[in-house]
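Progress note, project year one: complex with FE2/S2 (inorganic) cluster.
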Amino acid sequence: MQYTQKVIDHFKNPHNQGEIKDADAIGQAGNPVCGDVMKIYLKVENNKIADVKFETLGCAAAIAVSSSLTDLVKGKSLDEALAVTKDQIVNYLGGLPPVKIHCSMLGVEALHEAIKEYKTKSNK
Ligand code: FES
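Model obtained:
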């Protein structure tokens, strides 16, 4: 299996890895194919993603996807972040091996869960 250099870079030096202790929302997604899990923490200010971090127990592709996703959505409005697709993440990484495409779903799902939690909380 061949990973692009960008996938390898993000896997070896992931951006925004860790926990946000006072996060405004947390989203989690699990991959039924492999059992891997990803958690996304959000800090939201003025409806924009002020900070985002991830914790992923998963394969190299899942870590690279998490890292790229945080780069792609930081500073974006919640609606702009919701519009980011798994294909955009895969393109950003210069592609993923076909057997690893499912790993890109985790990021989008965890992010959507976190934004959903934030919207539900802030509508109360
Ligand atoms: Fe589980 Fe990639 S093999 S997320």
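The longest strand covers residues 48-57.
The chain has one domain: 5-118.
No further modelling is planned for this target in the current period.
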